[in-house]
Amino acid sequence: MAGCELDSLEETLETHLPEAELREVKRILFGKQTEKLDLPACAVDAASERNFELKGYKFEATQEQLRPPRKVRVGLVQNHIVLPTDAPVLDQINAMHSRIGEIVEVAAMCGVNIVCFQETWTMPFAFCTREKEPWTEFAESAEDGNTTHFCQELARKYNMVVVSPILERDEQHSTLWNTAVVISNSGNMLGKTRKNHIPRIGDFNESTYYMEGNTGHTVFQTQFGRIAVNICYGRHHPLNWFMYSMNGAEIIFNPSATVGALSEPMWAIEARNAAIANHCFTCAINRVGTEHFKSEFTSGDGKKAHHDFGHFYGSSYVAAPDGSRSPGLSRTRDGLLVVELDLNMNRQISDKWSFKMTGRYAEYAEELSAAVRHDFKPNIVKE
Amino acid sequence: MAGCELDSLEETLETHLPEAELREVKRILFGKQTEKLDLPACAVDAASERNFELKGYKFEATQEQLRPPRKVRVGLVQNHIVLPTDAPVLDQINAMHSRIGEIVEVAAMCGVNIVCFQETWTMPFAFCTREKEPWTEFAESAEDGNTTHFCQELARKYNMVVVSPILERDEQHSTLWNTAVVISNSGNMLGKTRKNHIPRIGDFNESTYYMEGNTGHTVFQTQFGRIAVNICYGRHHPLNWFMYSMNGAEIIFNPSATVGALSEPMWAIEARNAAIANHCFTCAINRVGTEHFKSEFTSGDGKKAHHDFGHFYGSSYVAAPDGSRSPGLSRTRDGLLVVELDLNMNRQISDKWSFKMTGRYAEYAEELSAAVRHDFKPNIVKE
Hints:
The structure is a homodimer. By secondary structure, the first copy, chain A, is an alpha/beta fold. Chain A has helices spanning 9-16, 19-30, 41-49, 89-109, 146-158, 238-246, 260-278, 344-353, 361-371; strands at 35-36, 53-58, 71-78, 114-116, 161-170, 175-183, 189-194, 219-222, 225-229, 251-256, 281-286, 288-290, 311-313, 317-319, 335-342, 380-381.
């Protein structure tokens, strides 16, 4: 971890680079510049009062003759936990509902059609502790939990699709899951999708709590486009992104919880690579802040026990299939990133780059089927 | 294309950012800093005399108890063509041999064990013209061509593995291929590997000249480690990198030829994502300069015919499995990037992040087999 937390990579570059160099550096780093989106003054004021960053950008596609633009506004929410981690569980959940409620209200002012919160957004990311109590009490039914009901109200009130990643308790099977509940703008639950890949690394002892998801690569047809949710560690697995895309996803959300020392140099790479490789939009969302736990814990790195495991660095962003990306939210503050996408860009870029046609997938299906056998013989040439 | 060509992204940042900010910006952009490698004065002098950039870096792994370090030095060569594109074919080839010969001599002074040249390194990247003559005359036998013989001499002389990407003519099958010839440090040809994915985009009319490779995902066991070659457009296909890794590649070279307007914002993303996702090292190599052709040609973009298709932006770099990367070579000059890798890092990072164990590949083999069927029904949930 760095001693001081830089607020924002982009702002640091903007502060110090001369204009001509800045333009080229940004082009090389971030691709074609995303235009700023005009947001209503009431939203800007409300975000300021409520102490969160509000940024807006748009990706534009080429005008076509036969298809009208397919513009959709996504809202990415990143935030600190509100109460200390030893506050009563219900108080913590209610405080998070309240905080998210006031951010989503601003998202509505900005015309957001689909909003997505961070991973297990109702709770601290407590899996580092390896304690089961009280953390498993944060788990709720995806279908009938208070959090789903809360999100259904938001969806109905604001005519907004809500992607709500929670810790799920499946009473029927006596299991816990890391799940995203997808709620239609009608308020109906469209379905749920579970985290496909579970980390076993450092403070991310998540396989202690839940297992690999069993919902495959479900894609949700919303009024505003087809969406999928690749939760956190699944972003390290290109095949995971790929199968969501093969199932028709136009936007893939990646609600996450990850800290600087571990993953920050990978953060800007993985979701963006997925947008490029799959001709779709990806939305990477990370929480912010440092979460302190009452019981000390170790991190499997030979170091002394401690009460926090580092800084969640925010930096939520949207990547486009043309290789460009939006600026990120800050590394330190709560924030709402509103990005207008024209989903027509996906097919335009697909027609241009043709990765789906040049992918030779049938051959990979065969090669992969052979490679996963325990007696697989790698194709290694020796002298 | 930008009006002026920035020499180097890294140098621009170093020139303008204050030290503390620079350190954080570099950490976020490039990961754990790669140390500079001390290179012998004779090499530095020779590079200066011969007018090419010489840079050296090293990636260090943790010291283990049971395995000694597995250090290997790779050399990435990027260069302009030497003669005008309308010079006699044999003169052009000989001039390239001569240029590469003087660069490889410096690589030998720097202790390089494995050197890799840029895609179809003996010729201009003339596929934009769609003319067959004289360009197909640059094609040579992989086994018995002059260029392979030339590389075998280099390999023997310097005890160096040579990866030589050429336009291959297979007389036996009357076919052309985009091929990398891999020559052992003994001077023997280890084998060849053909470009798996062929672009059909803009000026990259390559499917006009050759087809998708039929050599699968061969990995070459050299004295210095197991290597594979993912040629150019294959870097856009995560499955391609993945299958080289599944076959045991520790270092994957990506000899390329690509221009700024098309791909530059993707350049720093794709090979690096592959290093992360596959727990291996990747080496991205791009040519430099602008190549002018006598006959004018159009680029399928509605614009007027022209005689060049833009600036090859160099920027060759090495990415490590821990998410870090070396600085790039310049965007404008011939260059040799010498990077010392400790291949022990691959297994260390694999043991840490465990992507191969959490990858659920058997399930993807099934899903992919289903998805490639013409009557595949995507898993889309509707309200």
